[in-house]
Design a protein that fits this description.
Layout (H helix, E strand, L loop, with lengths): L2 H6 L5 E5 L3 E7 L3 H13 L3 E12 L5 H9 L28 E7 L7 E4 L4 E2 L12 E5 L5 E10 L10 E8 L5 E8 L5 H27 L1
Antiparallel strand pairs: 1-2, 2-10, 3-8, 4-6, 4-8, 5-7, 9-10
Length: 221
């Protein structure tokens, strides 16, 4: 079976186990190179949202601006692939982005009265579907009188560009006792469901194969 046959027969996938965070799927008769390509794409080739640009309006915390921006960038963000485009594929063709490829999140801690920890629940998104996967991710600790105020912009990206865009924590491929049978296990970061990662991964591998075939065709011409 080649990958195109696999695409046409997704119903043959056997889900061994799944929950909200992890899925294990049995791959039968899929050549190793295609199975491994799917594994790698599920890890860092499926686009998810992450904070990419941070405008620091005020930061009187002990954490430098660069450290604050780094921490914000590593907060996993819930993703909706059906409504948003990767910037390079968006019709706006603008570096500034648009509502179809970029989402703004803001955070204003106010002046701290006591020592406290600023957490991800304080990030307010202009789109309710694009927000941190957890309300409890710590960002910075403030002492009395300290404050942070930022405007953040999240966009879709892939983990091959930076690990903050990894769609999965782990993506493994293990052999079984049977010939041409392997188990693909994917654990989500929470940005997408495990099922969404696998289906988007299949589509991404297919697109890459088609692009490669087109390049080979151009060389032959």
């Amino acid at each position: 079976m080649d990958f195109e046959d696999f695409l046409q027969d997704l119903s043959s996938l056997e889900v061994i186990s799944k929950d909200n965070h992890k899925i294990s799927i049995k791959l039968k008769g899929i050549p190793l190179q295609y199975s491994n390509a799917l594994r790698r794409v599920c890890l860092n080739g499926v686009p998810v949202f992450a904070i990419d640009t941070v405008d620091i309006i005020e930061n009187s915390s002990v954490l430098p601006d660069e450290g604050l921006a780094h921490r914000l960038g590593l907060i996993p963000i819930k993703t909706d692939l059906s409504r948003f485009n990767e910037p390079a594929k968006c019709d706006c063709k603008s570096e500034a982005g648009c509502s179809n490829c970029k989402v703004m999140l803001v955070l204003d801690s106010g002046d701290a009265d006591t020592t406290r920890t600023v957490v991800s629940s304080e990030l307010s998104s202009e789109d309710d579907s694009i927000k941190p996967i957890s309300d409890k991710v710590p960002i910075v600790q403030l002492a009395p009188g300290q404050r942070i105020k930022v405007e953040c912009y999240a966009r879709l990206g892939q983990g091959t560009e930076h690990a903050k865009w990894n769609s999965a924590n782990i993506s493994t491929l293990t052999e079984t006792d049977k010939e041409d049978e392997r188990i693909l296990t994917v654990e989500s970061t929470g940005a997408l469901t495990p099922e969404e990662i696998v289906l988007a991964g299949v589509e991404e591998v297919s697109n890459r194969l088609n692009d490669f075939k087109a390049m080979i065709g151009q060389i032959k011409e």
